[in-house]
Amino acid sequence: MGRGKIEIKRIENNTNRQVTFCKRRNGLLKKAYELSVLCDAEIALIVFSTRGRLYEYSNNNVKATIERYKKATAETSSAYTTQELNAQFYQQESKKLRQQIQLMQNTNRHLVGEGLCSLNVRELKQLENRLERGITRIRSKKHEAILAETENLHKREIQLEQENAFLRSKIAENERLQELSMMPSGEQGGEEYNAFQQYLARNMLQLNMMETAVPSYDPLSPDHKRSHLQLQ
């Protein structure tokens, strides 16, 4: 008749618990010895009783076996921990990026007036203030651009007026020289006539150079119309 199964739980009776400890300890030491001999395994067994007494068995050296165990578990734990940490890091970064993308998409939708049903009064007020600040900055930038463009146009107007006055003086001088050149030769001295001819040629050359240097303008532009009216 075989023995019945014993329920695995703490034995309350001190005597029975001590007897069971001695029997099973010896059986455990015996099994460890048999395993080391039969399978050529390196085994280290450490047992502490409830009274603090140490029982140990090792087919090599307990300390050497423990050091070997620490080294093996440290390498495995380190490799596993590194991989696990890397996986957790990338998962967290991916989660953060998805949240940022979702937040930016929601913000853009709110700025164009979409998806406002999920916002409360406080969030709607914040969105309104944000839009007002943005509009204020846009208007300020537009005003600065208009002022800069106006200033450039004013400078261009002054430059065109100066060029217009210079051209008008050259035209008037050219007309006066042409009138002198059309006078009969008897009414002028020979040297004076030659001097006028040289002066006329020199001024005609300068006038041609000025006309070449002045850039062409759109006849429909306001600057060109203003210059044309001044010449008239």
From TrEMBL:
GO biological process, one term: positive regulation of transcription by RNA polymerase II
Gene Ontology cellular-component terms listed: nucleus
Gene3D superfamilies, A to Z: Transcription factor, MADS-box (3.40.1810.10)
Start and end residues of each K-box domain: 87-177
Compartments where located: Nucleus
Matches recorded under Pfam families: K-box (PF01486), SRF-TF (PF00319)
Gene Ontology MF terms in the entry: DNA-binding transcription factor activity, RNA polymerase II-specific; protein dimerization activity; RNA polymerase II cis-regulatory region sequence-specific DNA binding
Transmembrane domains' residue ranges: none
InterPro entries per the UniProt record, alphabetical: MADS-box/MEF2_TF (IPR050142), MEF2-like_N (IPR033896), TF_Kbox (IPR002487), TF_MADSbox (IPR002100), TF_MADSbox_sf (IPR036879)
MADS-box domain mapped to chain residues: 1-61
Function, in words: Probable transcription factor involved in regulating genes that determines stamen and carpel development in wild-type flowers.
Protein name: Floral homeotic protein AGAMOUS
Gene field: LOC102605234
